[in-house]
Amino acid sequence: MFTSIVVAITCVMSYFIPPDKIDQNKILFGNPEKFNCPAEIDFGAAVKETPEYQIIKDKKLQIGCGEYWIRLSQASEHVCRTVIKVANDTKKDIVVFKDYFEEIGQPEIKPEDVTHIVVCSIKDANKKKSS
After folding, report:
1. Closest of 85, 89, 96 to residue 31, by C-alpha
2. How far apart are CA 98 and CA 44, in angstroms?
3. Which residues make Cβ contacts (< 8 Å) with residue 43, sequence separation at least 6?
4. Helix axis angle, 66-90 relative to 51-59, nearest 10°?
5. CA angle 11, 39, 49 (to 5 degrees)
6. CATH at 32
7. Spatial contact of 42 and 115, defined as CB atoms under 8 Å apart
8. Using the 8-state DSSP alphabet, how is residue 124 labeled?
9. pLDDT tens string for the chain (131 positions)?
10. Distances (CA, A) of 71 to 40, 61, 76, 87, 129
11. What does pTM read for this prediction?
């Protein structure tokens, strides 16, 4: 119960990313102009946990191969869809790449790392699909 109170308090503050610092390639979900409950994700780690990436490993696909890029694109899209679901489920109003806030000079914004939640969601969905 105490954790819930702390989370609620930390999500009351309103933040924004200055327009000249916005990099849409590093914002996976949400509005950078106003947010209260930020989250971050290690996108590469999440991609490596997708079934699509597993095909890349199993087939030992090389970077120069067309199928490699197709599978990598599918894996990235899978993570993006899952990020949206997790953000909605956890009431996060923005999800960015890991360390993005520090890179743009806003270390006072302390996002929750949702990488583990996204990876678990991907694995759970894959188990249900296999059953």
Report:
1. 96
2. 10
3. 28, 76, 79, 97, 98
4. 160
5. 150
6. 3.30.910
7. yes
8. H
9. 344 434 444 566 799 999 999 999 999 999 999 999 999 999 999 999 999 999 999 999 999 899 999 999 999 999 999 999 999 999 999 999 999 999 999 999 999 999 999 999 999 988 887 76
10. 24, 9, 9, 24, 18
11. 0.86
> Strand 94-97 to strand 27-30: parallel, antiparallel, or no bridges (unpaired)?
antiparallel
Supply the range of the domain harboring residue 47.
Answer: 2-130
Measured at the CA of 25, the angle between CA 24 and CA 28, to 5 degrees, comes to 80
Structural domain count, the chain: 1
Residue recorded with tokens 């890991």: 98
| Interatomic CA distance for residues 80 and 22, integer angstroms | 19
Q: In the prediction, which pLDDT does 5 show?
A: 39
Please answer whether residues 38 and 92 qualify as being in contact, where contact means their C-beta atoms are separated by less than 8 angstroms. yes
Residue type, 7: V
pLDDT at 69: 97
Residues in the chain: 131
